Amino acid sequence: MTALTQDRTTPERDGRLVADPLATGATIFAGAMYVLSATALATPATAAATTPVRAVARVRAVQAAGDAQTAGALGVFCFDNAPGADALARTDIGAACYALDDCTVQKTGTCQAGTVLDVTERGVWVRVG
Question: Rounded to an integer, what is the distance from CA 105 to the centroid of its chain?
Answer without folding.
Answer: 11
